[in-house]
């Protein structure tokens, strides 16, 4: 009988949706699979801002430990939550075709406050990247911490005296909870690998590596690897406002990356283009350009502020 692939997942509705997607893809290819829900540290502490927790892989390390202990065979993650350096013995085996990469503003009443420079709007988000970009555009606004899964954050927005909150569009759309009172933030550059789902396994698990190989979407894997190289070269994580987005157009990879100060007063944006065949290094090159343009000074100031 075929081996049953144990799929580790967080317990939120979105995480289970993503894990079930992978399960269905494996089943369609003739494999047997089952879900194994595991609670992450990031799901337990819903109060402390992510940038104050300061732990790489806060949403993934419990699943990593379960894989290394052979309690699960594979783990499904939102790729933007995965550290650029994996624990020894683990690998990213498949990147699923990407969904919506954009950020989304869910507002309470209307969006008139976006055009009223005299009004101090109250905006909620747990992302230091979103905070920095928002303050760069709307420096008069007040930002509030918002933690929890998608449903919890939507409920929190409804109960608090806030004007709006920022979400990843893919998360709300995948579980069909995007409110009508929402608008895509086309001007906001996403987190590296936002909108993508990755499946990890043990490096020495040839069976799972072979089972996952057909699930890998080559274009998404290339673009997210470029974005994550940009992030890795800047030594960034959830404590640094780093944004990056790569996409393929007419046989070329188009890339844009950004590093922002915490309050948005300083920002460095770089762009790159290259043929798909030779584009693998443009994320690293772009990050080195950011550092040469003063990004190292911004990063040092962020570290000092968070020390």
UniProtKB/TrEMBL annotation:
Annotated EC: 2.5.1.61
Catalytic activity of the protein: 4 porphobilinogen + H2O = hydroxymethylbilane + 4 NH4(+)
Residue span(s) of domain Porphobilinogen deaminase N-terminal: 5-206
SUPFAM superfamilies: Periplasmic binding protein-like II, Porphobilinogen deaminase (hydroxymethylbilane synthase), C-terminal domain
InterPro entries noted in UniProt: HemC, Porphobilin_deaminase_cofac_BS, Porphobilin_deaminase_N, Porphobilinogen_deaminase_C, Porphobilinogen_deaminase_C_sf
Record-level Gene Ontology MF annotations: hydroxymethylbilane synthase activity
Domain (Porphobilinogen deaminase C-terminal) ranges: 222-291
UniProt superkingdom: Bacteria
Cofactor(s) essential for the protein: dipyrromethane
Pathway stated in the Swiss-Prot or TrEMBL entry: Porphyrin-containing compound metabolism; protoporphyrin-IX biosynthesis; coproporphyrinogen-III from 5-aminolevulinate: step 2/4
Pfam families reported for this sequence: Porphobil_deam, Porphobil_deamC
Key words of the record: Porphyrin biosynthesis, Transferase
Key word Transferase present: yes
Its job: Tetrapolymerization of the monopyrrole PBG into the hydroxymethylbilane pre-uroporphyrinogen in several discrete steps.
NCBIfam families reported for this sequence: hemC (TIGR00212)
Protein family (similarity comment): Belongs to the HMBS family.
Subunit annotation: Monomer.
Name listed for the protein in its UniProt record: Hydroxymethylbilane synthase
Gene it is expressed from: hemC
């Amino acid at each position: 009988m075929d081996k049953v692939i144990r799929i580790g997942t967080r317990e939120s509705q979105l995480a289970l949706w993503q894990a079930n997607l992978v399960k269905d893809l494996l089943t369609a290819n003739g494999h047997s699979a089952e879900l194994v829900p595991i609670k992450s540290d990031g799901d337990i502490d819903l109060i402390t801002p992510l940038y104050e927790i300061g732990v790489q892989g806060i949403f993934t390390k419990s699943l990593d430990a379960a894989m290394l202990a052979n309690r699960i065979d594979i783990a499904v993650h939102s790729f933007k939550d995965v550290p650029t350096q994996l624990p020894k013995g683990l690998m990213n085996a498949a990147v699923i075709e990407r969904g919506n990469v954009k950020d989304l503003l869910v507002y309470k009443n209307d969006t008139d406050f976006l055009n009223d420079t005299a009004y101090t709007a109250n905006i909620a988000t747990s992302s230091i990247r979103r905070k920095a970009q928002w303050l760069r555009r709307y420096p008069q606004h007040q930002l509030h911490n918002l933690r929890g899964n998608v449903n919890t954050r939507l409920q929190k927005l409804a109960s608090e005296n806030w004007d709006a909150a920022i979400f990843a569009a893919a998360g709300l759309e995948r579980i069909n909870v995007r409110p009508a009172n929402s608008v895509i933030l086309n001007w906001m550059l996403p987190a590296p690998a936002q909108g993508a789902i990755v499946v990890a396994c043990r490096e020495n698990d040839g069976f799972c590596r072979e089972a996952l190989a057909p699930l890998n979407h080559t274009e998404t894997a290339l673009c997210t690897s470029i974005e994550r190289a940009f992030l890795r070269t800047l030594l960034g994580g959830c404590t640094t406002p780093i944004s990056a987005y790569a996409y393929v157009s007419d046989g070329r990879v188009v890339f844009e990356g950004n590093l922002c100060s915490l309050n948005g007063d300083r920002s460095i944006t770089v762009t790159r283009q290259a043929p798909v065949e030779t584009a693998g290094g443009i994320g690293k090159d772009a990050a080195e350009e950011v550092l040469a343009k003063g990004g190292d000074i911004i990063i040092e100031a962020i570290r000092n502020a968070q020390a």
